[in-house]
């Protein structure tokens, strides 16, 4: 059995939710120490782990990032942690690549930094690592993700996986409670919520800029069915291919929500949260990953860039440190029926290929 599959098989048995990845972090830290890395744990007060291999010769600092948390699924009425997004696979490839790079003496200058990041699913893990100083000296960083079979297949990889910006918009509407028989004495918060949803649905931006905004949750309950509720909450899922488009969309949505509530005499408090930036990669990093994929797969294994409406907090590394050169590739592995599905499965043989792409990319980056 290959080392990367051995690592995956073990990590898959110890899934842990965001910021609770204690067994996972301890295992990864121990393996990095065995491989010759200087290891720091509890980065930013979290379960984050950073390993550094210093060649002792002046040169670039290249980082490989693996996310380590699992997802929570309700199984037979109980919350269970399950690796259904491939983070165990990502960490296995990063660790195996790190071990091999050191073992083969490939790091002849600069530093190789390994970042094992918690809480990607929560959307705050990358920020915690940044605040903990994980990327202060990093010149270039690479990440990766398994891809569903609909996007690319086994034996192929894309050098640029473009995630969208995503946020949640929350509006709490305030009306006036009243008896259902005397609606003229109240202000129905549900009416305000509906008016706001309609107003948001009427927003139009440049159609060449990919975006979406849709209400995904509404909560309003006066406790009885013959009373007008004085409060209602609506959540919108907001996504955009580009960060500037996201800013415009949020601005227009907030104005539409306030105006919609005002049409029925209600007030509203609007806020946004769970903000994940869109992907912004360095041309140099994409070029390196392109060369690495061709080196591992041949020209026939190189896929064009892939765009997805899904989010990924890896992109906080670029947002928080604009000077960093970032690249992120997508790995074909015949993954079905989809990410975040409790029945998710894929061809584990792809892990060897992904590991080799990371190794090739690191060597190319070090030699520039």
Automatic annotation (TrEMBL):
Please name the GO terms of the biological process aspect recorded for this protein, alphabetically. Answer: folic acid catabolic process
Cofactor(s) required for function per UniProt: Mn(2+)
Q: By its UniProt entry, which SUPFAM superfamilies does this protein fall under? A: Bacterial exopeptidase dimerisation domain, Zn-dependent exopeptidases
Report the co-factor binding details. The Mn(2+) ion enhances activity.
Where is Mn(2+) annotated to bind?
Answer: 85, 87, 121, 145, 340
* Keyword Disulfide bond recorded: no
Superkingdom classification of source = Bacteria
Peptidase M20 dimerisation domain boundaries: 170-257
**GO CC aspect terms:** cytoplasm
Among Gene3D superfamilies, the record links this protein to: 3.30.70.360, Zn peptidases (3.40.630.10)
Among Pfam families, the record links this protein to: M20_dimer, Peptidase_M20
Report a single Gene Ontology molecular function: para-aminobenzoyl-glutamate hydrolase activity
**Key words of the record:** Hydrolase, Manganese, Metal-binding
* PANTHER family (alphabetical): PEPTIDASE M20 (PTHR30575), PEPTIDASE M20 DIMERISATION DOMAIN-CONTAINING PROTEIN (PTHR30575:SF3)
Name this protein carries in UniProt: Amidohydrolase
Give the originating organism: Sulfurospirillum multivorans (strain DM 12446 / JCM 15788 / NBRC 109480)
């Amino acid at each position: 059995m290959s080392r990367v599959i051995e690592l995956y098989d073990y990590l898959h048995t110890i899934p842990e939710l965001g910021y609770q990845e204690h067994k996972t972090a301890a295992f990864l830290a121990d393996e990095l120490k065995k491989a010759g890395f200087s290891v720091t744990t509890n980065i930013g007060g979290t379960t984050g782990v950073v390993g550094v291999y210093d060649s002792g010769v002046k040169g670039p600092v290249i980082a490989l990032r693996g996310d380590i948390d699992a997802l929570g699924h309700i199984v037979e009425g109980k919350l269970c942690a399950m690796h259904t997004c491939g983070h165990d696979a990502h960490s296995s490839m990063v660790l195996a690549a790190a071990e091999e790079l050191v073992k083969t003496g490939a790091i002849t200058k600069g530093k190789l930094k390994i970042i094992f990041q918690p809480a990607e699913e929560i959307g705050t893990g990358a920020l915690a690592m940044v605040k903990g100083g994980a990327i202060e000296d990093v010149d270039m960083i690479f990440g990766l993700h398994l891809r569903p079979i609909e996007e690319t297949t086994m034996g192929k990889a894309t050098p640029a996986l473009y995630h969208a910006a995503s946020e949640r918009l929350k509006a709490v509407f305030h009306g006036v409670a009243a008896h259902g028989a005397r609606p003229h004495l109240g202000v129905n918060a549900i009416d305000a919520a509906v008016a706001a949803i309609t107003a948001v649905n009427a927003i139009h931006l440049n159609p060449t800029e990919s975006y979406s905004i849709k209400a995904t949750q509404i909560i309003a309950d006066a406790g009885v069915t013959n009373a007008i509720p004085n409060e209602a909450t609506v959540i919108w899922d907001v996504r955009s291919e580009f960060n500037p488009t996201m800013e415009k969309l949020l601005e227009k949505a907030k104005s539409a929500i306030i105006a919609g509530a005002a049409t029925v005499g209600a007030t509203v408090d609007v806020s946004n949260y769970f903000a994940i930036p869109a992907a912004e990669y360095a041309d140099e990093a994409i070029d390196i990953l392109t060369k690495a994929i061709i080196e591992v797969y041949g020209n026939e294994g190189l896929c064009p860039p892939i765009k997805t409406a899904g989010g990924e907090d890896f992109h906080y590394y670029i947002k928080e440190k604009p000077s960093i050169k970032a690249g992120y590739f997508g790995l074909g592995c015949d993954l079905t029926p989809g990410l975040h599905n409790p029945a998710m499965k894929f061809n584990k043989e792809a892990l060897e290929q992904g590991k080799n792409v990371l190794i090739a990319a690191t060597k190319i980056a070090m030699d520039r």
